[in-house]
Design a protein that fits this description.
This protein is an alpha/beta fold. It has one domain (25-83, 103-198): 3-Layer(aba) Sandwich (Uracil-DNA Glycosylase, subunit E), CATH 3.40.470.10. 38% of the residues lie in helices and 9% in strands. It has a four-stranded parallel beta sheet with strand order 2-1-3-4, with helices on both faces.
Length: 204
Amino acid sequence: MACRRCFEAGLLQRCAPVLPHPIRSQVVLVGQAPGRLEQETRLPFSGRAGRELFRWLKTAGLGDEEEARAAVYLTSITKCFPGPARSGSGDRRPTSAEIELCQPHLADQLELLDPWLLIAVGQMAISRFLGDHAMDELIGHVYLPSAEELPLEAPVPLGVRPLVLPLPHPSGASRWLNHEGHRTQLATALNRLRRLLDELPVPI
């Protein structure tokens, strides 16, 4: 919470790290970065995109927002609001320098939690865990830590973690879900998520 690395490097005008409730969960969800509202509430996914995300998680069987927050550790690639996009639409994408300065925080979170399932939300988080591939190729599938796809009916290898399930970004600024086929992919992904949650080594 006291981190000022990006401010001291001249990358941000204000550092206000956003962290979730300190829960220990087998499921970690990683987004891109907090938004303007999250900068004030200091609560992940508390804005409009968050409301959409929690609708998705409810579809996957995680209950309402309060239940989902109690079951899933919600974090992001960078922890501070990067500012508005120059285009005026949406938020600015964190720079590679900001990502590098914040990377140790995410690494520490993942080391402490050692999750069984990691939900990567949006292109930036997906690229961090699965490499640079188009979301069209990835949404609706589940991957091993090696980025190898886990077939639908294949058993989860013992001791292999975390599985990675990619989701698109729930922000209204994203146009990916405007395509009907992509909405079908999202529905498939949420169905896969529901099945994985049923297979958790320790039920939520």
